[in-house]
Amino acid sequence: MQVYLPIAEVSVSAFLLLGLGGLVGVLSGMFGVGGGFLMTPLLFFIGIPPAVAVATEANQIVASSFSGVLAHFRRRTVDIKMGLVLQAGGLIGAALGVVIFNYLRSLGQVDLLVRLCYVVFLGVVGGLMFLESLRALRKARGATGPTPKRRQRGWVHALPFKMRFRTSGLYISVIPPIGIGIAVGILAAIMGVGGGFIMVPAMIYLLGMPTKVVVGTSLFQIILVTGFTTMLHATTNYTVDIVLAVLLLVGGVIGAQIGTRIGLKLKAEQLRILLALMVLVVCGRLAADLLLQPAELYSLGPAGGH
């Protein structure tokens, strides 16, 4: 069943979109990630313009993150104070990101920027995750050396403007959380991602937050930042396609329930290596699209189009 997407200006199978939403929902439930960094490239592959894919996917992340954060609130694994500081940085970053996005869109370069960002970030993150997963698998099999201790004090603890975060058991400067928030906000605006794949490692290794409160706090931060990003894209670029968003949401909600059940049956090391391999496959496909000569060198558009 074909459905016409009015903002993307393409016709796509509704079942394909529901299936993509379901697939990313399964991944979200299995791995605890928003899935935007995989969904947005998948939308490129089926012909959705990058500007529309980025803005619409930011909208979908709001709903999936809201659903996830409710469960964490019930378990009391959300550091609200830290989340608010991260959100402050995230809102600044999102505004900056949309300004950059609009400027490059006016130059006609936004599609190239988005694709390049994905190739770089997916390549780096996928490679690091794959190496870390291999180490974890070796450790699980008993081939372990001495476990490195996490450094407890460093340059983060020497910075001014300290604040106490009781839920995380931290007394640190607000500068690093705001900086992380700004970086993730820019990524949310330009790439249509929640930024959890950068936020979570930064919160653990840079800020020293306990792992049990990291995912819930990350999701709490993502909701407001991606919601703000969606609003900016909708009001300045008019690139949020509601029909596309609804179909992805329905598939995502169903898939997340299935993914949560699957995730409970697999070991953490197996989950991480599967996710790393998927990220690297998507990165490779995007890189090939950028580097290989297309079958058609020219395309015809309407008169006066860009």
From TrEMBL:
GO terms for cellular component: plasma membrane. It comes from the Bacteria. It is a multi-pass membrane protein. Keywords: Cell membrane, Membrane, Transmembrane, Transmembrane helix. It is found in: Cell membrane; Membrane. The chain crosses the membrane at residues 12-31, 37-56, 84-106, 112-131, 170-198, 204-226, 238-259, 271-292. InterPro entries: TM_pro_TauE-like, TSUP/Inactive_protease-like. Its main location: membrane. Belongs to the 4-toluene sulfonate uptake permease (TSUP) (TC 2.A.102) family. This is Probable membrane transporter protein. It comes from Antarcticimicrobium luteum.
